[in-house]
Amino acid sequence: MNRYLRGFSVLGVIGTFIILLQGALVTKTGSGEGCGNTWPFCHGEVMPSYHTVELWIEYSHRIVSALVGLIVVILSVWAWKTYRDHKTIKFLAFNSVFFIVLQGALGASTVISKHTDAVLALHFGFSLLSFASVALLAVFLFQLGKTGDLGFDWQTIPQRFRYGLYGLAIYTYVVVYTGAYVRHAGASLGCKQWPLCGTSWLTDLTGQAGIHMIHRLFAGLLFVLTIWLWWVVRRHYTERKDLNRGATFALVMVVLQVITGGLIIWSNLQLMIALLHTTLIAAYFSALCYLCFQVGLPWKWSKNETSISG
C-alpha cells in the first residue's frame, strides 16, 4: 500500500511543478486577463464561446490547478493517515494543502480584483512553497520506504550554521519575490545589458531599470552565499553525504540560475529560457528546504556547540 502512496506522491510533485510552469507562462505571455475578471470559469462560461491563445493559456492553468489541488489533498490525507507518528510527514502534508489552497485563493483574488504588482508577485511565492512542500513530502516518503526511518541527525550541527542555513532559505524566498516582481512590473528588460546595466552596477533605483537591478544585486549575493554554504559543508561535514549532496545540488542550480538569467537578457526574453529560469529556482529552493530539515530547527541545542565560521 505504501508503494502506491510513494507513486502517488510523484504525481503530486509533477502536478505542482506543472502549475509552477503554467503560472510563469501566464505571466510571461501576458495571459492573466485571458478569461476576463470571472473565476473559476472563463468569461462566466464552462466552455468559452470564443477562443484566443491567451484565454486557453489562462484557462488551462485554472483547470490543471484544480485537478492538481485535488491530487495534493488526497496525497496529504493519505500520507497523514499512513504515518500518524511522523511529525515531519504530518507537517509537510499540512503545508502541501495549505499552500496550494492559499495560492489558488490568491489566484482567484487577482482575477476578480485588481491588485498591485507587489501582491501579484506573492502568487508565485506561494506556488514555490507549495511545490517545495510536496517535493519534500515525496522525498521523505521514499526515504521511509527505503530505510523505515527519516534518520535526521541534527545534534552534531552547531546552531550558528543552522541559523545561517535557515536565513539563506528565507533570503532565497526574498530573491524569488524580487524576481516575480520584475516579471509582473514588466521590468524584465529594464536593463538590456548583462551583468551591468549600461556601464554601471548601480543605477537609479526607481523605474524599471531600478526594479531590475535590485533583483540582480539580490541574486548576486545569493550566488555568493551559496558558494559559502557549499564550502562550509565540504570543509566541516565531509562524512554527511546528505548535506554534501544537498549543498552541491544547490550550487549547481544557482550557477545555472545565474547563466539563464543572463541568457534571458541576451535572447531578448526567449520564452523557454525564462521557463527554465523558473524551474531552476524551484529546484534550488527545494534543495535548501531539504537541508533545513536535515540539520534540524536552529534553536534546538546541539551536543557540540562549536561554532563554525567557515
Automatic annotation (TrEMBL):
Write down the required cofactor(s).
Answer: heme b
Q: Which UniProt keywords apply?
A: Cell membrane, Disulfide bond, Heme biosynthesis, Iron, Membrane, Metal-binding, Oxidoreductase, Transmembrane, Transmembrane helix
Transmembrane residues, as ranges?
Answer: 7-25, 59-80, 92-112, 118-142, 163-182, 213-233, 245-266, 272-293
Q: What is its EC number?
A: 1.17.99.9
Q: Which GO terms describe its cellular component?
A: plasma membrane
Q: What does the record give as its pathway?
A: Porphyrin-containing compound metabolism; heme A biosynthesis; heme A from heme O: step 1/1
* Reactions mediated catalytically: Fe(II)-heme o + 2 A + H2O = Fe(II)-heme a + 2 AH2
Tell me the superkingdom of the source: Bacteria
Q: Does the keyword Metal-binding apply?
A: yes
> What is this entry's stated membrane topology?
Multi-pass membrane protein
GO molecular function term, any single one: heme A synthase activity
Spell out the InterPro entries in the cross-references. Answer: COX15/CtaA_fam, COX15/CtaA_HemeA_synthase, HemeA_Synthase_type1
Which compartments does it reside in? Cell membrane; Membrane
One BP annotation, GO: heme A biosynthetic process
Residues recorded as binding heme, renumbered to this chain, are 215, 277
Q: What is its main location?
A: membrane
Subunit = Interacts with CtaB.
What family is reported?
Belongs to the COX15/CtaA family. Type 1 subfamily.
**UniProt-listed HAMAP family:** HemeA_synth_type1 (MF_01664)
What is this protein for, i.e. what is its function?
A: Catalyzes the conversion of heme O to heme A by two successive hydroxylations of the methyl group at C8. The first hydroxylation forms heme I, the second hydroxylation results in an unstable dihydroxymethyl group, which spontaneously dehydrates, resulting in the formyl group of heme A.
Q: What is this protein called?
A: Heme A synthase
